Amino acid sequence: MSMSKLNKTRVYEVYDEIINWFDDARTKNLMESEYLNLIVNAIPPKSSILDLGCGTGEPIAQFFIEKGFKLTGVDGSQKMIELCRKRFPDERWIVSDMRDINLQQQFDVILAWHSFFHLDHDSQRNMFKIFESHTKPGGVLAFTSGEEEGEVWSDNGGQQLYHASLSTKEYESLLKNSSFKVLVHKVCDPECGEATVWVAQKI
């Protein structure tokens, strides 16, 4: 298997290689605060959070933990999960590819923030079954994508990382067919690293 193919299908192995760079480079100033506060205001206290692609736990998981929510973090990177366990030992941390999870549990919130867009097109489509089965009725799903359908590679810590996006129309269809209604869709938000943000609620 070529390195580009490996990077495309198992991005978390690249993150194992660049963990120190990533942890230093990842902004801790919560540029996502607008969306995180929207989520907090939509759910009860002590709600359960499933953070898919949780990375090193800072700042997103940390934000919810410090507000008293019960967090389960999932990441394919063994090294990142080890760091999460060290930083936040009272939370539940799972080493797994998000495409493989079947936790037999539903959550008030599912996050796939700056992680979902590392999946290829078919994997993204298949994730909506997982989102639906793991979200409580009335629960919130938040994820980031690109602005339009396509695939790109970007340099991160000297390694090439794969990103992909479906079209807006297809995301809207996938959400609707998975029992979610769109609350927020903001394209290339400059306050959020130019990510396209989706927030939806299960109905």
TrEMBL record:
UniProt GO molecular function: methyltransferase activity
Cross-referenced InterPro entries: Methyltransf_25, SAM-dependent_MTases_sf
Keyword annotations from UniProtKB, A to Z: Methyltransferase, Transferase
Entries under SUPFAM superfamilies matching the protein: S-adenosyl-L-methionine-dependent methyltransferases (SSF53335)
Pfam family, one: Methyltransf_25
Keyword Methyltransferase annotated: yes
Protein name: Methyltransferase domain-containing protein
Species of origin: Legionella pneumophila
